Fold:
Amino acid sequence: MRVWCESANPDKRVGLRLRLPFHEDAKAKNVVTRWSRFGVDPKDSALHSLIQTHKLEVVHLHVHEGETFSEADLDQTLDLLVSCLEIFPKVEVLNLGGGWAYLFHLQKPEAQRVWNLVNKTITSINNQRQQLVRLVIEPGMLLTMMAGYLVAEVKAADDHPSGHRIVVLDTSAWNLMFWAPRPAVAQIPFREGPMFVHDLAGCTCYETDYFCLNEKMARIEVGDRVILNASGAYTSSVARSLHGLPIPKEFVIRDNRLCLVE
Structure:
């Protein structure tokens, strides 16, 4: 930021990405990763010295802490942003960033409470300010994750001593979905009859290469196909190729036709 301030850029109205502590998850237990490595500390004296020296006006605050996992996490982030408004009183825009895909896993009343919390916070802020604050979110993954489906063929299916049926697909969750939400599953052909507990595994030798566990479905056999949702958004853009496995071909529906994405 110091380099930017000392450049010829004449714009004095700036936005800051804030470096905030992570929520109480696995990352927060590690001293090194307890705080985000991106952004600035809103209480850093060197930051405020730069702002004062270069007569900057902070009008935009942005946070992004990865995936938000609960209403409590969001409440903590909103509280921190509200406190930052006391440090930067001329802010016009609050950007809550991304990380909203967890809403897919909530029931409608729970999801509504999340948006009610956001609305309550921004309303409270604006009721106390002459300059209204505009709220921005980045729902890219939330909007596009469910737009994609993965069709995979069953290459092996065995009854496991655990009582589960282990099904191996012709692609890999580790390669494609290592940070995606747990997908729902449909099967082709559809079968009626008793339900069995299935664990759907990828085709690598990585022990935890599973698409999903404890799926109750009609008995799946070799040669069947399964359809997994939540395969849009980042699935192909962050895919990797353990064992040199190819990434599945992608198709889109255009004018009622299935078209290969080149």
